[in-house]
Amino acid sequence: MKKIIIINGPNLNLLGKREPQIYGNLSFNEFFETIKAKYPQVILEHFQSNIEGELIDKLHEVGFLYYGIILNAAAYTHTSVGIGDAVAAIETAVVEVHISNTFKREDFRHHSYVAPYAKGIIVGFGLQSYELALQSFLNPL
Q1: Which family does the record claim for this protein (predicted)?
Q2: What is the pLDDT tens value at each position of the chain, 141 positions in all?
Q3: Catalytic (active-site) positions
Q4: Which of 9, 31, 121, 139 has CB atoms 3.0–4.6 Å from 96's, for a disulfide?
Q5: 107 is in an annotated binding site
Q6: Domains in the chain, start-ordered, CATH in brackets?
Q7: Is 78 a known ligand-binding residue?
Q8: Is residue 70 annotated as involved in ligand binding?
Q9: Which is nearest to 58 in space by CA: 42, 67, 43, 69?
């Protein structure tokens, strides 16, 4: 069985409460249980932290063992050279995701330190962005 992890960065623990006009009303845990049930052929895990170093540590921990990583580094996407370097250093393919269309938002959100090292990027499809990323691992072109 393929082992895939979703790694979420800062403030994503507030999904369902935080800015519902941008992020919706569903908590990530509710969504995660739905997607786990929909894809029983995958060992799907989830990790969230508001702390940059913990995200880097998790990338290092799983980055040589797992089949795929779905990474929403949230605001750290646009600020963290360290997270970009961690993605570059590991062997496991990473798909960068964002719930909102970051290109419709503030200019600083148009740059990603993760993108140069990612297998691909999915933005702007709400929580479905995670499922699209998962499908990219299960149905490679």
Answers
A1: Belongs to the type-II 3-dehydroquinase family.
A2: 999 999 999 999 988 887 776 667 788 999 999 999 999 999 999 999 999 999 999 999 999 999 999 999 998 998 999 999 999 999 999 999 999 877 667 676 668 999 999 999 999 999 999 999 999 999 876
A3: 23, 98
A4: 121
A5: no
A6: 1-6+64-124 (3.40.50.9100)
A7: yes
A8: no
A9: 69
